[in-house]
Amino acid sequence: MSYVPPSLTTYATTLANATASGDTTICTFVVPGGTWADGEMVTVRIFALSKNNKGTSGNATLKVNATGGSAATIGAAVSWADSATEAVRGMSLEMVRAGSKIAVWPGGTGGYDNAASAVAYPIDPSNFMTSPGTARFTWHEVTPTNFTSDVTVSLIMNLDATHATFYCKPQTATAMKSAVRVK
What we know:
Layout: E1 3-11, E2 14-15, E3 22-31, E4 41-52, E5 58-66, E6 72-80, E7 83-98, E8 101-105, H1 115-120, E9 140-142, E10 151-159, E11 166-182
Antiparallel strand pairs: 1-11, 2-3, 3-10, 4-7, 4-11, 5-6, 5-10, 7-8, 8-9
């Protein structure tokens, strides 16, 4: 057996600000139909500015969806404390095609906070890689309609209130697929 270096494919991301209550798709990318093989992993890293200065705590929920299938809730109704300080939040998600499903892990590597934590905690050296409970170690499933057509992956932020100083504004995102094979 010999190691074959991973191939790396990147996907263009579309970003949008979550500034009102309800679901807002904050990041979208498309994996072309027939190109996401079983066992291949897609990683998404996103950095956003966020703030809650509306006078009370506010709840934020992060979900992942793929082409109209079932959505997975990654961080549910996580409370953001009231603060005048705008925070930078880093999120990382790993998604592996497993047969007809996508297994989503809200993990993180290096300097990235995991997605469930990132909903709750801004980037700060004192809380890098911390985890609220067991959410970090939980796989979630997303079931797209099929893999032969384009798979549109959406990261959805739900804020529980609309206020000018309660928001999540993505600044940059990277979506990439890698395939490591043993020959």
